[in-house]
Amino acid sequence: MLKTILNLFRPNTRNKRSTIAIMVAVQVAVLLTLWITSPFKWLPTPMDIWAALGRLIQQQNLLYELWNSTWLCLKAMGIAILISLLISYLTVIPFFRPVGFLISKFRFWSLVGLSFVFTLLTSGGHELKVSLLVFGITVFFVTSMVSIVQSIPKYEFYHARTLRMSEWQVVWEVIILGKLDQVAEVIRHNFAISWMMLTLVEGISRAEGGIGVLLLNNNKLLRLADVFAIQLVILLMGILLDYAIGKAQALFFPYSKMSLDK
């Protein structure tokens, strides 16, 4: 028993699933105890948050707003993936490399400062939110993809050329098809970024509502229990979508998990 407990504090050790489950249960119990007995009276209790969640569903259409935000995020993610992959793959051509480099540096720009520009370029609130999200996703996506393309070992290109492939065939086989599993991983990481930016974008343009607008409205009114409930829903939905993407990745690219296990 003592050895099992000590293994939990040793680096690079393997533990039984039952041991991990007990450890997590104890940690959650301790966290809930500290939360409930917290001296901060302004901090909502779990029961307060549960009651607020019921009110939000019945009175403020929480589930409908969550669906609006999820669809917005998925739509922007799809557009950003297509744009980012096109830019990233074009960087194998010398003429387009500066374009990829420049776009990757745009990740240091603030969406708040760019909202005015995108407002002029778009014709409505929905288009504005999609454009801001696509921009925010693309700059990070291109950065990751360019890094993947540049890190491909030279011998993979040489091997393809020994099979008498043309340079365009090399691009297709080695870069595009050969790295699809890594593209899936980049999609998963960048979805988390887009989900985190969602409330910011919905705060810039409140047209059509959304979970971010609901969060900002309750935050303005200092309804802390409602704010915590909405944040909890955002967190759980993000975890659920991330899990779904991970399952899809394991289904379509099972060999990527095998390489990670090694």
CATH homologous superfamily descriptor of the largest domain = MetI-like
| Oligomer class | single chain
Low-confidence stretches: none
Head-to-tail CA distance between termini: 30 Å
The run of helices and strands is: HHHHHHHHHHHHH
Features:
single chain; 262 residues; mainly alpha; MetI-like fold; 2 domains; 79% helix; 0% strand
Kindly describe this structure.
This protein is an all-alpha fold and about 260 residues long. The protein has two domains: about 1-35; about 45-260, MetI-like fold, CATH 1.10.3720. Helices cover about 80% and strands about 0% of the residues. It contains 13 helices and no strands. The model has no long low-confidence stretch (mean pLDDT about 90).
Ordered list of secondary-structure elements with their pairings:
Elements (H helix, E strand, L loop, with lengths): L1 H6 L9 H20 L9 H14 L2 H29 L6 H9 L5 H11 L3 H26 L3 H9 L4 H11 L2 H25 L6 H10 L3 H29 L1 H8 L1
Helix pairs in contact: 3-12, 4-7, 4-10, 5-7, 6-7, 7-10, 8-9, 10-11, 10-12, 11-12, 12-13
